[in-house]
Amino acid sequence: MAIQSFSSGQVLTAAQMSALQANDYNQTVSAKTTSYTLVAGDVGTHVQMTAATATTISVPAATFAAGDSLFISSLGAGACTIQAASTAILVSGQSLALSQNGGGTLRFVSSSACTFFSGSAPPTFFSLDYLVLAGGGGGGRENFSSGTGGGGGAGGLRSSLTVSGGGNTGAELALGVAKNVSYSVVVGAGGALVSTGSVGNDGTNSSFGISGSIDLVVATGGGGGGGGTVNPTSGRNGGSGGGAAKGAVGGTVIGNGTANQGFNGSLGFASIEAAGGGGGAGAVAGASSSGVGGAGGAGAANSITGSSVTRGGGGGGCAQGTGGAGGSGGGGAGANYGSTNGGSGTPNLGGGGGGGANAAPLNSGAGGSGVVILRYADTLTISIGAGLTGTESAASGGYKRATITAGSGNVSWA
Question: Among 138, 131, 195, which Cα is nearest to 168's?
Fold first, then answer.
C-alpha cells in the first residue's frame, strides 16, 4: 500500500487502520518483468523485478521528496541495475546492481538525490584485463603564406597486457571487478579536422570505471597538431603530443606525450617549410626536413584480442613538398601543400590526423576514435548497456573479449 493522504478531522475506519499497519510489515508489491521508471505512487511500496535478463530501474528527478523511501528487490536471474533517469538526479550507493534474490531500500535526501542501501550478498570478484585507447588529435592547419600544419598526436594507450614498443610496457595490473555490478565505459572521439588556420583539436579521453563513482583507468586524448593564422604555433600536449606547425616566421614547440601512454611530436623545418609529425603510442614522431613533413610516430602492438594489433599511430606533418607519412597503427598522412588534404586517423585505432595548409584543398585530417577492449574468463557473459556500441566475442583460449567501439554507458557481468 502506498502512502495515504488524510484531511484534518477525518475519522479513520477500522479497515484503513488495518491497511496502514499491514503496510509497515507487508508492503504492497508491484511486480515488474521489464525495465521500469519509478513513479510517485511507488513511495512506501515494494518494487520487485522478476526478469530473466538484465534490466534497469530508473529514478526520475523532481518526482520524490526528502524522506521518501521504497524497497526494491530482484527475484529474476537477470541483474537489475538501479540508475538515474537523467543527469538531473544523483543516484549513489555502494552497489547499484542487484543479483538474484538481492534487495535494498532507496531513500531520498532531496528531489534530486537519493541513496540505495543494498542488502545484496557480497559480490563475486574476477580478474579483468583491459586496453583503453583514447581518441587521436586532429591535424593543425597553418594559414600563414606557405605555412604548414603539424600532425595530430595519437590517443593515449593503457593496458594491463604487454604493449610492444609502447610507453606502457604492461606494468599495469589487471583489475579486480565484481559480477552484477555496473561499470562505466567511455570511448573517446577523435579531434575534428580544421579547415581554417587553427591549431588541431585534441582527441577526447577514454575510460573504464565504477558507474557513478570513480574512473579506474583513463587514457588521455591525443594532442592537436600545431597551426594558426599568423605565426606557426606549438603542437598540443596529450596522450601523444601534436607536431609543431612551421611557416616562414617564428619558432615552434612540440607537443608532449603523457608518461606511459604515448610519445612527443616533432619540430617543423623552416626552409622549405615542413611541419612536425604527431607522436605515437609506440614512438616519437619522425623529424621533418627541407620540404618533407615529419612522419607520425609509430603505434604500439598489443594482443588482448588474441592476435597482435598495432594501434595509436601519430599523424604526419604537412609540407610544401611531401607530407609526412602517418604512423603505423592508424595515423593519417600529412598534406602535400596545395594538392591533398591531410589524411584522417583510422577509427578505433586512435590515430592522429595529418596536418594541413592554407592552399586548397584546405582541410587537415581528423583524429581517429579510440576503443575499449575488455578480456575476462569465458565462464562470464557481459551485458553492454544503452549508449554503447560493442560486441562480445566467442570464447577462445579460456577468454571472451568485449570490444566497445563508441559511446558512453555501463557494462556488467553475470
Answer: 131
Nearest CA-CA partner of 253 in 274, 271, 273, 237: 237
Predicted model pTM: 0.74
- The closest alpha carbon to 332, from 289, 290, 280, 371, belongs to 280
C-alpha distances out from residue 182 to 54, 192, 256, 381, Å: 11, 31, 35, 13
Residue 407 exposure: Cα atoms within 13 Å on the Cβ side = 15
Q: Name the residue type at position 270.
A: A
Go through the domains of the chain in sequence order and give each one's CATH number.
14-118 (2.60.120), 123-414 (no CATH)
What are φ and ψ of residue 377, in 5° steps? Answer: -60, 145
| pLDDT 10s digits, 155-207 | 999 999 877 765 554 568 899 998 888 899 999 999 999 988 889 999 999 99
Query: Which among 149, 202, 203 is positioned nearest to 335, based on CA atoms?
Result: 149
- pLDDT tens readout for residues 270-283: 888 899 999 999 99
